[in-house]
Specification:
By secondary structure, the protein is an alpha+beta fold. It is built from four helices and 24 strands.
Length: 387
C-alpha cells in the first residue's frame, strides 16, 4: 500500500461501506418477505367474492321425464257439409264460429224443379195404382168365367200377367216418388252433428251441384293432439300415459292421455304418430294450433337444481356448496333428469335451501372463503384474514 495515494484509499473504503449497506438491506428485505409469507400463511387463502348470478338455491319442485313430442290439435269429430241437390243457394245465414245443433237447417237450395218432379211422381203412382185395380178386377172376372167354362185357361193366364205388370209399374212409380221426395228434402241442408261452424265456403246466390262443399262443422269437445315421437322412444310410451304440453297462444299447460299409437313409422323421419285425447269441454282450445310437450314417463316432487350446478365429469357427481362462508365440495346422488328444462333431481347430499356455486365459480378450490355480493349477513360472518 506504499504506492497508493490517499485519494485512492478513500475511494476503496467508500465502496466497502456501500457494499456492506447493500448486504444489510438485502438481508432486511428477505426478513420482511419471510415475515409477510408467514403472516399470509397464518391468515389462510384470500376471500373470493361471488355475485348472485353464480349462485343457485336448492328448491323443492316437481320434475318429470319422458320423450318429447310435437304435433297439431285436430278435431276427432268433424263433418264437411256438401250440397246434395243442384240449384241456386237461396239462403245460407250461418257464419263461421257459430254453434249449430244436429238437425238444424243450415241452407236452402232452389227446389221448384224438385217439387214439380215430386208432383209428377205422385201422379204416376196414382195412375199405376188405378191401372192395377182395373187389371185385378179383370183377372177376377176372367177367373170366374174360366171356372164356368165360358173362357179358356189361357185368358186367365193373360189376365194374371197383366196384374203382375201393373204391380211392377206401381212399384216403379212408388220408387220414383220416394226418390223425388228425397231430392226435395236434400234441397234443405241440415246439420249432421252438433258443433261449431269452422269454415263456410258458399254464399247465398251461388249455383251448386251435388258434392259442392258448403261449410264445415267441428265438435270442439272432441279435440285431440296428433303428435310424433322418435322411434327410439317407443319403449317409453304406452296407451294411457299422461301427456303434458303447451299450445302456442296460451299461457297455461294442458294435459291429456295417449289414446292410440300408430303401428307404423314414417319412412322418412322414423317418427311414430300418437293420438292424445284432450278434455276441452269449455271449448277454449282451437283446432289447428301447434303444440309441443312430453309424455310423462315418471314424475315426482324432490330437490331440484339446474344441471349446470352439478359436475358430471367425475364419478360420482358433485356440487360446490357455500357453507359457513366457505366453498365445500359435496358428493350427490342423481334422481330424475329432465333434459327439456335442463334440471336434475338430487336424491342425497344437499338440503332444501342450500346455496350451490355455478358457472366460473364452480372451479373454486374447496375450502376457499366465499363472500356473496350484497349479502351483509354473510359478510359479517366471514373470517377476518388480519386476525
Amino acid at each position: 500500500m506504499k504506492g497508493m495515494s490517499v485519494r485512492s484509499l478513500g475511494h476503496v473504503m467508500m465502496v466497502g461501506v456501500l457494499l456492506s449497506l447493500a448486504a444489510a438491506g438485502a438481508a432486511a428485505c428477505r426478513s420482511e418477505t419471510a415475515d409477510a409469507k408467514e403472516k399470509e400463511k397464518a391468515a389462510g387463502p384470500a376471500v373470493v367474492e361471488v355475485g348472485r348470478e353464480n349462485l343457485i338455491t336448492v328448491k323443492r319442485d316437481r320434475i318429470s321425464t319422458g320423450p318429447l313430442i310435437s304435433g297439431t290439435l285436430t278435431a276427432e269429430r268433424e263433418a264437411t257439409v256438401r250440397a246434395e241437390a243442384s240449384g241456386s243457394v237461396l239462403s245460407l245465414t250461418i257464419e263461421e264460429g257459430k254453434p249449430v245443433r244436429q238437425g238444424q237447417v243450415l241452407a236452402r237450395i232452389e227446389d221448384q224443379p224438385l217439387r214439380d218432379a215430386l208432383l209428377s211422381a205422385q201422379s204416376s203412382v196414382k195412375s199405376t195404382e188405378n191401372a192395377l185395380a182395373v187389371a185385378q178386377r179383370e183377372a177376377a172376372r176372367t177367373e170366374r168365367l174360366v171356372k164356368a167354362g165360358a173362357l179358356p185357361e189361357r185368358d186367365l193366364e193373360t189376365a194374371n200377367n197383366q196384374v203382375a205388370a201393373a204391380q211392377a209399374q206401381v212399384a216403379a212409380a212408388t220408387a220414383q216418388q220416394a226418390s223425388a221426395r228425397k231430392n226435395l228434402d236434400n234441397a234443405t241442408v241440415k246439420a249432421p252433428m252438433t258443433g261449431i261452424v269452422s269454415k263456410r265456403t258458399a254464399s247465398a246466390g251461388d249455383v251448386v251441384s251435388p258434392g259442392t262443399e258448403l261449410l264445415r262443422i267441428i265438435d270442439p269437445t272432441s279435440l285431440r293432439l296428433q303428435a310424433s315421437v322418435p322411434s327410439e322412444a317407443l319403449t317409453a310410451i304406452s296407451v294411457g300415459l299422461a301427456v303434458q304440453f303447451r299450445v302456442r297462444g296460451y299461457d297455461q299447460p294442458f294435459e291429456g292421455h295417449i289414446e292410440r299409437i300408430s303401428p307404423t313409422a314414417d319412412p322418412v323421419t322414423r317418427q311414430v304418430s300418437i293420438f292424445v285425447t284432450i278434455p276441452n269441454k269449455s271449448g277454449r282450445l282451437v283446432s289447428g294450433l301447434f303444440a309441443e310437450g312430453r309424455v310423462t314417463r315418471a314424475s315426482r316432487e324432490g330437490l331440484v337444481v339446474p344441471t349446470t350446478a352439478v359436475n358430471f365429469n367425475e364419478t360420482p357427481p358433485w356440487v360446490l356448496r357455500v357453507k359457513d362462508g366457505k366453498a365445500e365440495r359435496v358428493t350427490v346422488q342423481i334422481g330424475l333428469r329432465d333434459d327439456q328444462t335442463e334440471r336434475v333431481e338430487l336424491v342425497s347430499g344437499v338440503q332444501e335451501g342450500d346455496q350451490l356455486l355455478v358457472g366460473a365459480a364452480q372451479g373454486m378450490t374447496p375450502g376457499t372463503p366465499v363472500r356473496i355480493k350484497g349479502d351483509q349477513q354473510n359478510q359479517a360472518n366471514q373470517p377476518n384474514p388480519t386476525n
